[in-house]
């Protein structure tokens, strides 16, 4: 059965769920008390013919997690008006096609910002103070055998450059201020609402920082924003934390510089070809690797479910949506 | 040669270095430009006869790191007036004997507080958000194979009970406020200078907390302060972080509760029988183990070296010492 809605729910608005088979979110249970759900994965038809047969009248689509939504799929949906995203970044959605069609796109808004920021700070202290490496050292029995343990370095007083001072970057800055760090930032535009020094060029920010916290969106402009030149500017004691997207950092260059000790360390929640992580990183003691879960706690997931539900309700009530992505 | 000072430095005040052979601090290089250094480990004589032969006039002794200073050793030094400690806690020094003799004891003062607090926060986020466990997961290749990864829980909004609101506990509180945590504390006395709710009994603090941050000194009164009753009061989702001393927590009870999942997790920088860590902990995924290095960075070590030097200079100039331990 393609349309899972029974006749008693036929009066409910129709929404299309777009997801990879591995993203079977509990969100469906919340949505189906308010909407009729159309999920192509519940049909044996191929996606294209399913959409052509059943989704011509669909006005609203929800994208689960990071399921890629291509221009080809969007073109099969002539009535589409809104794409509700459930992630902080929306680089998996063809924003250009949405913009051309005038389709509104929403994201996770603030729902994930605190959890990502917490995780970014944890990754930073972990790299500087060697927390995960220390855990490996104790668990392997080496503490008892060898005694001495390589020291890390102090967080307080470090110059931290935030790349992308949006919802997440702002929360990172607020936390690191409490540790006595000195904050500066780079973003597309200077923000009049904050006092931190602004650098229009990320390379200048790197030159004047001990640490780069990469918190911006991945777009065609920001792909490999953290390139060899930026990493060299950061210098051999420098630390990079990436909680944005893997594509923001030139991963191969980062690996080269880490291996040659031309950069101090890295805390990475995201990678260019997730879940494939370059094996060279596994051999390094000055990196902390995280399986792209900086955003996720039960609390943040519940928050994004409620935000997604609210966005859909607003759409069908002709009210302003809660977390619209600005398409520039 | 017992006394390493040459004749040209005979006018310098004499200090006795007390250390385990494994603690050969660079501090000696700093001290010997200001003092004559007496180091029993540079002699082949046994300690007792060395002290009886060479140290009867010693007024000042410096203890490197956590080298145990017993009452028996102190009794061999009839002229001793000051013991300069280089650690935050001084449970390795027989404080009772010092008090009886009227010997002043100093510690690391504020020098280590920021670094310990940074590490305590990192251990907490690590346990809650499974940072080290995630690093193990990625490095072992399981992310690619299995995909899904157990989520942690959110830091913001958690009720954090600080056990011991001294230099370290206060810095921990300040940092966790920036993450949106709700702070309360237990200490010997209510502090008029802070607004956080005070609990006279640590068990009541545990009942009203999601997390306990153990930051107090180890004394005969605080040994096993975090006992089974306190851990049960904290509850099955509760997390304990210990950056004080191993003896503050009943380690065997903690292991039992962790294994039976009657407590949520633990971040431990200190253990009862360091560097021996109970093997049961190595099998647990909800603990983060650190080799008693929360205090140590090159920056904090330099700070404590300078503080120790300042304390010794003050002593020999009859000026007030910088970081006297209150002996109650």
From TrEMBL, chains A, B:
The keyword NADP applies. It holds the Pfam family 2-Hacid_dh. Its EC number is 1.1.1.79. It is an enzyme of class 1 (oxidoreductase). Residues 121-294 form the D-isomer specific 2-hydroxyacid dehydrogenase NAD-binding domain. One of its GO terms (molecular function) is NAD binding. GO terms for cellular component: cytosol. Residues 50-325 form the D-isomer specific 2-hydroxyacid dehydrogenase catalytic domain. Keywords: NAD, NADP, Oxidoreductase. One of its GO terms (biological process) is photorespiration. Belongs to the D-isomer specific 2-hydroxyacid dehydrogenase family. This is glyoxylate reductase (NADP(+)).
């Amino acid at each position: 059965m393609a349309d899972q809605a029974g006749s008693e729910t036929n009066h409910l608005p129709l929404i299309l769920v777009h997801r990879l088979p591995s993203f079977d979110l509990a969100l469906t249970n919340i949505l189906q008390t308010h909407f009729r759900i159309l999920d192509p994965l519940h049909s044996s038809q191929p996606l294209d013919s399913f959409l052509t047969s059943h989704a011509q009248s669909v006005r609203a689509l929800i994208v689960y997690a990071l399921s890629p939504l291509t221009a080809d799929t969007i073109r099969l949906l002539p009535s589409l008006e809104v794409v509700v995203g459930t992630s902080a970044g929306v680089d998996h959605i063809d924003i250009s096609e949405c913009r051309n069609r005038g389709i509104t796109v929403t994201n996770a808004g603030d729902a994930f910002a605190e959890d990502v920021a917490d995780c970014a700070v944890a990754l930073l202290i972990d790299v500087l103070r060697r927390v995960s490496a220390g855990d490996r050292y104790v668990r392997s029995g080496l503490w008892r055998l060898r005694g001495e343990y390589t020291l890390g370095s102090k967080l307080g007083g470090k110059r931290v450059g935030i790349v992308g001072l949006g919802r997440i970057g702002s929360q990172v800055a607020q936390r690191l201020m409490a540790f006595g760090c000195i904050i500066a930032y780079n973003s597309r535009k200077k923000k009049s609402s904050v006092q931190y020094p602004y650098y229009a060029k990320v390379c200048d920010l790197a030159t004047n920082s001990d640490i780069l916290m990469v918190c911006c969106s991945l777009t065609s402009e920001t792909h490999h924003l953290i390139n060899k030149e930026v990493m060299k500017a950061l210098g051999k004691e420098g630390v990079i934390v990436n909680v944005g997207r893997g594509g923001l950092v030139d991963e191969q260059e980062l690996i080269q510089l880490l291996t040659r000790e031309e950069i101090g360390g890295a805390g990475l929640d995201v990678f260019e070809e997730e879940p494939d992580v370059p094996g060279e990183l596994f051999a390094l003691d000055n990196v902390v690797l995280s399986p792209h879960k900086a955003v996720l706690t039960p609390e943040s997931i519940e928050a994004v479910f409620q935000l997604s539900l609210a966005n859909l309700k607003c759409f069908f009530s002709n009210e302003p949506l809660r977390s619209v992505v600005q398409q520039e």
